[in-house]
Amino acid sequence: MYNYSCSAAAVERCRAMLPSADHTASAPTSTLSKVWEFILSGRGGPGQRLVHQADWLASLTMGSGSQISGTDYHNALKLGYDIEKLCWPEWLLAEEQVANLLPQHVVAPGTTLGHVGAESSRWLGLPESCRVLAGTTDSIAAFLAAGTTQVGEAVTSLGSTMAIKMRSLVRVEDAAFGVYSHRLGGNPLQWLVGGASNTGGVVLRKFFTDKALKQLSDEIDAEADSGLDYYPLPSPGQRFPVCDSALQPRLEPRPASDAQFLHGILEGMARIEAAGYGKLAELGAGDVCRVVTAGGGAKNAKWRQIRQRLIGVQVQSADWTEAACGSALLALRGSGLLG
């Protein structure tokens, strides 16, 4: 899973390869760390090849005879792909055990890979003339759905976890804070700078039903401070805006009022989000000027008001809040959507 932290041995082998300590792939949750966990488990033998979920689904759609040989450069980022030079770096290819597992080709998201296969055509109900395009990551799909256009605009995806992405002219990476940049495209070249926190809806699910969330949210005064200093995490460990696998959740003391408890949790999440945008500015990505919200959390108006108060800029819901809409737009417009 995206938030799975690898063993110390796998992370050590991963970091020993890297050209710098702040490289995106140095995180315990990176794809490259997971490759080493796979190798150290003894499963990385001849004929094995790494595929991301998007690669596997594309292969299924094209049919059982298609080869899974490529991926897109968004998914390949945390595997160590050089997104400036658009190639596998020499330091990665020099490690034969890893190099043998790498996807053979890396293309821009939205690039045509092939067409729907005959068997897939039958069970999907799609014509064989339908093209299959290279995908992207879930949070970038949510970003594309939100429809931002200006540098400094950002998208916060509020799902089970919280991911933020901001348009910037500067590529910023610092693994110590879980900050990394995806290549977006355009002229001048833009970057999606951000990170993904372990806070989010998964914490709310531990305490509240959907019905209770709606009822209790109505009781919250979003312009007032809850008086609670929470750091909402589902379990120990945080990825962004600090990367600390041992960071402990803080959800006490719990007040008698469930509405106040929810207020404190929502504020705690908003502080993490605000700290995230603050960290991006501190590292040189620029200041956020507007935040668009995607994901299920976009429906909660009181949470939006709390976030707007703590971040200090306009916060609004995206016209399309589902990441699937970004995937559909990518399928419609191809790689041109990135520029």
Automatic annotation (TrEMBL):
A single MF term (Gene Ontology): D-ribulokinase activity
Any one GO BP annotation for this protein: xylulose metabolic process
Record bears the keyword Transferase: yes
Domain annotation Carbohydrate kinase FGGY C-terminal: ranges: 189-333
Upper taxonomic lineage: Eukaryota, Sar, Alveolata, Dinophyceae, Suessiales
Pfam families noted in UniProt: FGGY_C (PF02782)
Name of this chain's protein: D-ribulose kinase
EC number annotated for this UniProt entry: 2.7.1.47
Catalytic activity: D-ribulose + ATP = D-ribulose 5-phosphate + ADP + H(+)
Needed co-factor(s): a divalent metal cation
Name of the gene encoding the protein in the UniProt record: XK1
Highest taxon listed in the record's lineage: Eukaryota
Family label: Belongs to the FGGY kinase family.
